[in-house]
Amino acid sequence: MREVILETERLVLRTLEQDDFEEVCKLLQDPVVMYAYEGAFSDQEVQAWLDKMFWRYENDGFALWAVIEKSSGELIGQCGITYQEYNGGWVPEVGYLFRKEFWHKGFATEAAMACKEYAFQVLNFDEVYSIIRDSNVASQNVARRNGMTEVDTFVKHYRGVEMPHIIFRVSRKDI
Known about the structure:
This protein is of the alpha+beta class. It has a single domain, classed as Aminopeptidase (3-Layer(aba) Sandwich), CATH 3.40.630. The chain has helices spanning 21-28, 43-59, 107-121, 137-145, and strands at 4-7, 11-14, 64-69, 75-86, 89-98, 127-133, 149-158, 161-171. A hairpin with a 3-residue loop joins strand 1 (4-7) and strand 2. Helix 1 crosses helix 2 and helix 3 (107-121) crosses helix 4. The longest helix has 17 residues, at 43-59. It is globular and about 35 Å long.
C-alpha cells in the first residue's frame, strides 16, 4: 500500500513499492546519475536497494521515498531520511537522487527542504546531515540551499574506491 508521506507545491513523496522497480531502474541504472556511486546498478543491485528501503520502512519508520512530480504523476527521483554511519555512530541523513532530465529544476531542493522539516517536526531529530561525495557539487549546492553547512570530511570505501565525502549539517536551532 503506497503511503503518502508528505507533499510540496510540485511533489508528492510516498513510500516505494515493488511495483516501482522499473521506474527505480531508470534512476539507479543511469551511469550519469550514479557517478557518485561509481556506476550504474545491475537489476540485482536495484532490487537490493529497494529491499533495503523496505527494511528501513519497517525497522526505522522512514527511508528514501519515491518523489512523484504532481503535474505528470511520474516518479522522478528519491528523497528521504536514512541513518548513515558517521563518526562512530548513526546520524539521520537527508538524501536525494533524481533522474537527470529533472536536474536543475529545483526539485531536489524542494524535496530536501521538505524532508528536513519532516525530520525536525515529525521525527523530532535535533539535527540532520547530508553526506555528499566531494565531486558532487550539485548535491552540495542542494545541501547549502537546505540551510546546511560543512562540518567535516571523511573517506568512504565503496566498490573498491576511496571516495572523499563532505559532511553537511543543520540543527533545529539553526532554522
